[in-house]
Amino acid sequence: MVWIYRLIFLFFFLFSCSKQSQIPEDLILARVGTSIITIQDFIRRSEYTIRPDYCRQDNYIHKKIILNSLISEKITALEYDKLTNTVKDEDFDYFLKGRREQAMRQLYFAKEFHSEVDISEKEQKEAFKLANKKVEVQFLNLPDLEIVNKIKKLDSQNVPIDSIHKVLWGGVAPIRKITWFDREQEEIHEAIFNKKIKKGEMLGPYKTEDNTFVLMKIKGWTNALQITESAKERLWQDVHERLVENKAKKAYLFWVKDLMSNKKMNLNPEVFYNYAEKAADYFFSMDSLKRNMLNQVLWDDQEFNENIFILDENDISNDDVILDYNGETWTVEKLNNLLKSHPFVFRKRKMKRSEFSEQLRYAIADLVRDIEITKQCYLEGYDNDWSVKLNADMWQDVSKSKKYLSNIKSRNKAITNQNQWLEYMNPKIDSLQNIYSEKIEINMDAFEKIRLTTTDMMVIQRGVPYPILVPSFPIVTSDNRLDYGTRSD
Q1: Strand 265-267 relative to strand 213-223, pairing
Q2: Which of 101, 160, 176, 209 is deepest in the core (most CB within 10 A)?
Q3: CA 323: distance to chain centroid?
C-alpha cells in the first residue's frame, strides 16, 4: 500500500532541484516528430492503467507492443491534425488548462516542500520502532462537546463503551485496527502511536473535518516482526517516505495558511442555498467515478469528463451573485467558468444530502485556495517547466488520438469487439509507422532496461480536481515489431 502511494507521489513528475524548461535527454525514451515519450511515461501508462491481455506481462514481446501502442497513439494524434473537419473544442481547452494548473500545483509542492525535507537518523529510528505496530481501538463519533463530556464522565465511572453505544445507536461500538502507515489526522496518529498509551485508555476528543468529535478507547495492540533483511530494508524505506511526506505536508499547509491569511470569502445565503439545492440534485444523480471507470470502453472519453457538473440558466440565473471574495463579486457565471477547468473537489467522498451544502461551502473555499496557489505557481514560472508542458502534451495527444480512432470506428459499424478492432487497425498502424518512420527515434538501451509489474491497477489521486493519474492504455495495435524509426544512443 505504501509503495503505491510513493509511486504516485514521487513519480507523478520527474523533478529536479530547480525548474527547467528543457527535458533532460536521459529521460527520453522515444520521439515522434516533436512529441516525446519519457521513460516514466512508458512505466506509468503501463502500470497505472489496466493493460489488455495481449501486453500484460513483462516479457520483451509485450514491452514492444506497449511501446508500439504509445508511439501509435502519437502518430494517430498527428494524423488527426491533418483532418480538415477538426473543430476547436473549447471544453477541452478548459480541461487542458485545469490539467496544466493541477500539474503546476503538484510540482510546486514537490520542489518547494517535498524535496527540501530532511529526516534525522534519530527521528527515523524512533518511527521505525513503531512501524510494525497495529493498534485496535473502539470509537464513537459524536455531534458536539456536550455529549463528549457526558460520555467521558460515564467512562470515568467504568461504564463500558459498548453499553454507551447501545443506548445511543444500538449494537456495539465499531472497532478499527490502525497501523502506523494509516492516514489518520495528525493529532489522532500521534496520540495512538504514543509510547505511553495504555490498554483501556480513552483518547480524545478529536475534531474532524466535518465538525464532529471522535473518542477512542484503546483495546490493545500487536507488533509484527520483519524476518528477512530485505523486508527490514523495505520497511525502513517506507518509514522514511512517510516521514518526508508528513513533514512536507505540514510545511505546505503552514505556507497555504499564510498565503490565505487576510483573505475573506462571504457567501450570499439566498443564492448559495438555491445553488446548493440544484447542485445536490445533480450530484446525487451522477454515476460514481468508480462506475465510470469500470464502464470505460475504447472510445469513451471518461478521463476527460471527471467530476464536472455546471448548472445552466434553467437551474439558476448566471447573473446571480453567489459570493464576494476579497471585495470582488462572483456571479454564478464566473463560478461556472472557473469550474470548467477546476471541478469541485469534495472533502467527503460519501455524504448525506443534508451535508451537501456544508461540503459545497468547503469545496468553493478549496477552489479559491487553489486559485491563489496557482497564481503563485505562475509568478514563479512553473508553467514553463518541461514536466508541466509534457503532461499537458500527453493529454492533448491522447484526446486527438481518441477522436481520430473514433472517426474510424464510426465508419466501420461492423467492428463490435477488440479482436476485430485490432485486426482492422494493425495493418493501418503498420502503414502509418512506415510513413512516419523518419520522424521516429527510439532509445533502445533505455527501453531494454525497463522492468514492469504485471499487477492490474487503476491509479487515482484523492483531493484533486482531476483524479485519474494517466490516460487509459491505448488499444491501437497488437503488433510487436519495432521495424521502423531510428535508434538513439
Answers
A1: unpaired
A2: 101
A3: 28
Q: Give the C-alpha separation, 99 to 113, whole Å.
A: 21
Instruction: Report how far residue 333's alpha carbon sits from residue 109's, in angstroms, rounded to the nearest whole number.
Output: 30
Per-residue pLDDT band at 16 (split at 50, 70, 90): very low
Domain segments of the chain as ranges: 2-115+382-487, 133-223, 265-363
Which grid coordinates are listed for 301? 472519453
Residue 182, Cα to own-chain centre: how many angstroms?
18
- Interatomic CA distance for residues 316 and 460, integer angstroms: 32
The predicted-structure confidence for 137-188, as pLDDT tens digits, reads as follows 999 988 899 999 999 999 999 999 999 899 888 888 899 999 999 888 888 8
How would DSSP label each residue in 22-50? Answer: S--GGGEEEEETTEEEEHHHHHHHHHSS-
Contact 404, 410 (CB under 8 A): no
pLDDT in tens, 40-89: 999 999 999 999 999 999 999 999 999 999 999 999 999 999 987 777 88
Cβ-proximal residues to 414 (8 Å cutoff; 6+ apart), any chain = 420
pTM over 0.85: yes
DSSP letter assigned to residue 460: B
- CB burial class (10 A; 0-12, 13-18, 19+) of residue 51? buried
Cα separation, 218 vs 440, in Å, equals 61
CA distance 259 to 464: 19
How many residues comprise the chain? Answer: 489
Query: Where do the DSSP E strands lie in 321-379?
Result: 321-325, 328-331
- In the chain, what is the greatest distance between 2 CA atoms, to the nearest angstrom? 83
Res 7: pLDDT: 41
Q: From the CB of residue 163, how many other CB atoms can be counted at a distance below 10 Å?
A: 12
